[in-house]
């Protein structure tokens, strides 16, 4: 690498754009991200500039730099046509991406020309550095980029939206992003709040106060309200959303999820089929359809009396086909693979289920929540289908020992405690309780140390 290239790389690393925000390439499912971005563009969803910028980043990582330049050119054109009065504020990220793509193409002079453009723009903002202005527009876009990059980036995404909203509290785009990331973090934590204390519910209500016609906000709020058993309001919101936006895939997918959770499987399937006609390569939609069939299988299995084996077999095959399609489209879709393995278990295909579980247990480059999900499901498989209490305990303990607050970790703990509720009080039960208490104690001491370190830092200032 030449000295000029080295110096340019140092300057590029200071930029605020997708190339400096994103996690490492190995942590991104590029094909899935590209499909989702392309769907968003094809369906003419709002904020096309955002999709084109992120698509440029993905294309560049895949070695398609010419396509990336075309994506950025389209993004720039949209901004000039629709946001002429705010062009300089909004173009910062696009110019940063341009500079990085030309750097990857080896066109260093062209990359420098975009740094020069950024330098001229940043001179307008008093607190800006040479090439970067940390203004609300930058924080907002960074929040969306991190939100779309995976669970590991959710907390940083939340902080970006909070910073952007401090300066522009009525920006519905950033409130929506903030509400989405809060909803996901609440779901991951596994902590059940009340409807009045839920931060995401407050933000979704805030969106609808500013924009009463936002159908996506309606269905998202409805899903949260259903968790808190606010069924009547939730049902009304979903119906209103479908009336306002009957042809928007994002509304259809979340409305389908709502009806599946409510037990109206046929309604959910109808909405998913409609959405799949518009987005046939959506891994999410195929997975949701598989989840509907899975619910039907569970219901039939619980039915007393004779069961139509042909009907069960068809449902199982349809279910497996949907989950297979989901993880073929998105190879990193761990939950779809776990769901597929579970259906195999129900159908007595233990060898196939075990093969999938073993492959998933070997995964290293996946988030802590996925590792917990895998160990929880393997633990249940060992307990319910292999009838191995010792192996069940082994995997549930592995999941619980991963120090990441999540619903799956809570599930591992709950099942371990059930196993430990042994009327004979054998040594295994005592060991399980001891390990749980030991880990709880470690986390308490770690929290105390964290608080004390904070006090020391504060006092030393």
Automatic annotation (TrEMBL):
This is Interferon-induced protein with tetratricopeptide repeats 5. The keyword Repeat applies. Keywords: Immunity, Innate immunity, Repeat, TPR repeat. It comes from Scyliorhinus torazame. One of its GO terms (cellular component) is cytosol. It comes from the Eukaryota. Gene3D superfamilies: Tetratricopeptide repeat domain. GO terms for biological process: defense response to virus; innate immune response. It holds the Pfam family TPR_8. The keyword Repressor does not apply. Belongs to the IFIT family. TPR repeats lie at residues 249-282.
